Amino acid sequence: MIPGRRVSEVDAPAVQALFDDDPETYAILEGAPPRPDEAVQLMRELPPGVTPERRHMYLIDQLALIDLVDGYPDAQTWFLGLIFVARTARGAGLGTQLIETLCSHVRRSGGRALRLGCAVGNPRARSLYDRLGFLHVARRTRTTPSGATLEIDVLERTV
Questions:
Q1: Which of 24, 89, 95, 152 could form a disulfide with 117 if both were Cys (CB 3.0 to 4.6 A apart)?
Q2: How many domains does the chain have?
Q3: Rg of the chain, C-alpha, whole Å
């Protein structure tokens, strides 16, 4: 089971506060500091071909946000669109615990892999993913809503 509670638009202020508290890290992920409506926009966007029922966003004690899509990009793979841990909670193992919990959840739900994208300019996150057994699948270029162009390493781990 994924910790925390499912996010709805009612939670937008709490999610926005999480982003606004660390604009530097958010800019590493998105190429710019968070917009004033970043949380609402995030909650409304879906990957191509994904229905809202397959998207799972969780807020964990105001300390972290998880954005997970089941069966994307294929039926056996789940995609972690975002894991954002509050600045005050980093370095204490929360990210590791959340990733391991997600891998167990994906496995119990019939998935075989967890995939995610890691900004090339985010070495702390990349170090975590490497340590947790994620392997490089591809590199792609992503244009963010702010218009920034980022290099993203696509990583995957068998669950």
A1: 152
A2: 1
A3: 15
Average pLDDT over residues 107-126: 96
Q: Is the pTM of this model over 0.90?
A: yes
* Cα 81–Cα 86–Cα 117 angle in degrees, nearest 5: 20
Please give the average per-residue pLDDT across 116-135, as a whole number: 96
Q: What is the mean pLDDT of residues 40-60?
A: 92
Q: Other CB atoms closer than 10 Å to residue 99's CB: what's the count?
A: 22
End-to-end CA distance of the chain: 15
- Taking alpha carbons only, the member of 58, 46, 113 closest to residue 83 is 58
Degrees to nearest 5, angle at CA 73 with 70 and 78 = 30
* Strand partners for 96: none
Range of the domain at 133: 5-158
Are 81 and 47 spatial neighbours (Cβ–Cβ below 8 Å)? yes
Residue 84: give its domain's CATH number.
3.40.630.30
